[in-house]
Amino acid sequence: IQSLSICYEDTESTSGQPEKLLVRIYCAGGWMFSRDLEEKVALALMRDRVCPRWFGVFKNGRIEEFLPSSP
């Protein structure tokens, strides 16, 4: 289980859109996946620019680029 929060600055960037970040917080224990493996895969995908960039990592989560989408 994890918690997701979208944070943004209430000013507009040079593109005219608010700057947004995603804060991903993982719960302690009961992991269904290896966070080390997830990190290695994500770093490889970031090099090819096919996943959100990470701006920070902390003990139980990370701060990453928010990619808007539509259904």
Quaternary state of the chains: single chain
The helix count comes to 1
Report the structural category. alpha+beta
Strand content: 35-45%
Nearest-angstrom radius of gyration? 14 Å
Q: Give me the side-by-side strand order of the main sheet.
A: 1-2-4-3
The outline comes out as globular
Q: What can be said about this structure in brief?
A:
With 71 residues, the chain is of the alpha+beta class. 18% of the residues lie in helices and 42% in strands.
Can you put this structure into words, describing what you see?
This protein is an alpha+beta fold and 71 residues long. It is 18% helix and 42% strand. Strands 1-2-4-3 form a four-stranded antiparallel beta sheet, with no helix packed on it. β1 (2-12) and β2 form a beta hairpin.
